[in-house]
Amino acid sequence: LLRPGTLNLADRNFFSMNRWRAAVATGAQLVWRVKNGQKSVPVKIIKQLSDGSSRVRVRESNAMLYARRRALGDPKAPRLEDITARMIEFTVTVTDQAGKSTRSRFRVLTTLLDPHAYPAEQIAACYAERWQVEIAYKTIKTSLRGGDRRLRGQSPDLAEQEIWGLLAAYNILIAYAVDTAVELGIDPDEISFIHVLRAVRDHLI
Fold it and tell me: What's the pLDDT at 88?
């Protein structure tokens, strides 16, 4: 739920001028990744900031305008006014177990405009936490449920009930892992969900 005092992170395929404006109107702060192409998200730099980030003016692209007009059913809907935001650009290098490295360029827009209060390095690190939700989805589908198993419910109501059960079990196990991490004085990310799951199963059996 977006509201004042909350921070919202979003993947690059989520951004549009319309969504951004609606989210900003809630009073929440935003850290959203955007596509790298200038045509996808037209950006003009207003000022280069001390930490390497930039204050920018963002224009509604032709593709966003077309999609919004189609959704409204109004082919003559005017282009939305430009927005002012701060842009942080950084590179992420991922090295797999075979030693092969892949580099990806990231552009992140944020409503946190003050580079002294919110340094670019901290914004980049904060955005990386968004990937935890992807890990959570994968964990629920493959580790908890089992990758080769389908939902047993044969109706929407039963499927929804089963999904809520999986979410409840996942959150209970994560809470257990976090409590353990606090006792050990380590980051909860260092605790393997698989090990927690096996330990609980062994205890129940």
Answer: 96
